[in-house]
Amino acid sequence: MSEFLANKRRPHITLRKFDKAWFKAFFLWLKNDYVPQKYVRVEAKPLCEGSLHNVQQRIVTVFNKAVKFGKLKANPFYQLEKSDIFPKPKASHKQYLTPDELKRFMASDERSPGVAETQRAFGFACLTGLRISDIKALRWSDIKRNKETNTLVIVQKKTKALNAVPIGNTALSWMPPKGDDDFVFHLPAKANVDAALKRIAKKVDIEKNISFHCARHTFGILVQAVTGNIETTKKLMGHKSLKSTAIYADVLTNEKVKAVDNTKKAFRGRKQREENKQIPRTKRTAATNTHPRRITFLQDNK
What does the pLDDT look like over 20-46, one tens digit per residue? Predict the structure, then answer.
């Protein structure tokens, strides 16, 4: 918003003067002209539908609070036409790696320090569910060790809530050697992180458009598949509501439906081949140019 107002040479405009026309102008600028900071040095990309809607909702929330506390009589956002606002995007497919894909991803021999660090951080996130913001803030002192278990205890950057996640031996083996400071991972810029992930995925023949957040989805799917308990998944993911966690159960349900459908198709194909074997092979007749074998098969299935 501050960048938009500076662009319009009105950096100190008040809420009362930010009317319907200003809202419309801001949304147009956000959609067509705004360049996210992470793309300043690379090819510029517009904000996706989800990001546009998120920014819109944050601005609307600010104005709603201004109305609530008597700073404004009404929120001018609600005067806009439907065509002027960003609709809520449809639920997107949660991209995740299967256990086999994760093994291949982590087995890739990466020599570049930045790519190797990204690989380790991604693998660790796949087995702990940490967001990239929490990975960057993770310290060695956040890992509580004892004879029986190792536990990761952090305050999540996004929710500000305390979360504890047990750490297995595989996750521990993917952590880097301890450096001079207390931070566990030292990741490059986000654009370089995403580029490294895509490079490794392509190298090991994973045909998925993965981002770092894919690691969190992978963790959610793995936990739900192993435990079958949505409440356990919710706690380990650090979700406040089961609504967020239910997505992972839904994904697994969809995968099970696909598996059953594929099984049905396989047996259907097998049954048809067996029935065809029982029908004697004959040649087409010159008189009718029909195929008796095919006719017999169709009659048997009436």
Answer: 999 999 999 988 888 776 544 445 677
